[in-house]
Queue: 3 jobs
Job 1
Amino acid sequence: MSFYENRILPHLIDWACSMDPIMALRQRIVPRADGVVLEVGMGSGLNLALYDSDRVDYVWGLEPSEGMRRKAAGNLAQSPVKVKWLDLPGEAIPLEDESVDTVLLTYTLCTIPDWQAALRQMHRVLRPHGKLLFCEHGRSPAQRISHWQDKLTPYWKRIAGGCHLNRPIQDYIASSGFCVEELENLYIEKAPHIAGYMYLGVASKLAHADTRG
């Protein structure tokens, strides 16, 4: 991992992902987590203060970046819930089948290199009646915006830790053995539309889904 990725990027990501409009969206999703939680891409732990400690048993925090885990130290020290670190990428979740009640994704699916493998792993570890909570940015339905998302993503990835501007989040989740039960889309305030089209929602695990492939 380069000096930029380990020492500079974590601070930039923490700043961008902790702006007031972003935190307001997190506040609408994170408190809905319950039971044993798997947070994929915990980053600097911005969600920790938002968990409802009366509903959550503990949180598996999956975060492959050493720099982000180091940046999380302050939030971890004040966390209202117990956290168990997993320092592996989202494509490799070392948990047993059907062992978590909630999977939480906040501004993570845009970055995971092999999103298909990662979502298969999330599907595997989620209990049959569990839920996938997500708050992500992604592809806009407006053609003039998605055109620029496609055009800029190759360059954006280089400076933003692999982040894609143009991933159709709902389609990715729905194609991975989940049923999207709730979905809200909006452009976030004070953000350019190429990076500010949001997907907030809840998905359940489809019975008998084939997530191979």
Job 2
Amino acid sequence: MRTPIIAGNWKMFKTVTEALEYTTRFRELVKNIQGVEKVIAPPFTALHMVSQLLIETGISLAAQNMNEFDNGAYTGEISPVMLKEIGCQYVIIGHSERRALYGETDEGVNRKLKAALKHQITPIMCIGESLAQREKGETFTLIDTQLKKGLADLTKEQVSKIVIAYEPVWAIGTGRTATPEQAEEVHAYIRQWLKANLGNEIADLIRIQYGGSVKPDNIAGLMAKPNIDGALVGGASLDAANFARIVGFRQ
């Protein structure tokens, strides 16, 4: 049985002070919620101080990105070694905004996955299509390519440790949400791809999140689908009470 995983990606929001206020409130709101893994991804500046507030709360800490190298002359970058030291258990890799705005590629995603796994940080690997690609009927071709290139040269054991986040680009920050049926169709395709390429046992272990305008009023419908194992939440995670309602979707 796969444990649902709900992650809040704050993107470039919240000062350290705001992040600490949020975390203090959020941990109280979700302290009695069981059976779901809770993850928050503050901006880099707040990671260390937030990590101190998460000790023994059952809430995991994620970074929103990282460099593929352990160290070096890469001005402005953050390495997996640095993230590991401050307590990050997860890192988001290949988010659609990173791909669209900063030119990140499937090959680069692959290198970052390997680096994260090397340092025992669980990657949340993001994949998904644009509106134009969906309208052209290219969704499954694109998903196939992103999985094939993103997971290249990884062992079955390594892939089993990755969380995959399907995020239709056309539904991120737009207010448009894929229906549970639309989301499940792609999640089922991803699961089948994993089975075909890695075997049933590995495919059944991997959690696949949905990301794209997830809100308290649509999370239950999404989570009712058999291949949707959680959510990568953007804007709706910026309010502690709102995100707590999403995390507590079973209540």
Job 3
Amino acid sequence: MNIPEDLKYTEEHEWVRAEDNIAVVGITDFAQGELGDIVYLEIETLNCQIDSNEVFGTVEAVKTVSDLFMPISGKVIEVNPNIEDKPELVNEDPYGEGWIIKIEITEQSQIDKLLSSSDYKNLVDS
């Protein structure tokens, strides 16, 4: 299982890559593996301010439909345009081309409260 050390993680299996005041968000390799083949993502929160732990969209896989939770508070400023036509990118490259949203960070301190790669590895291994 791939858990890049340069990212932060949530207990809901999202990852965050913070770059200045922008955060790129996706689901982890573990999450996409548990979900199975992803067939559709619904993100209707573009340009919305959303608090941490609130739902920002859903992911539909062959097995199930799951909510996607905001890892930190912020405004959704971009939805990955490639996943609309190719949702399988989330399975194929969850930390790269399969990213889901970009958010404008409202509270930088929330990044520090997310899980490190080793903490996340302990979570999924337990």
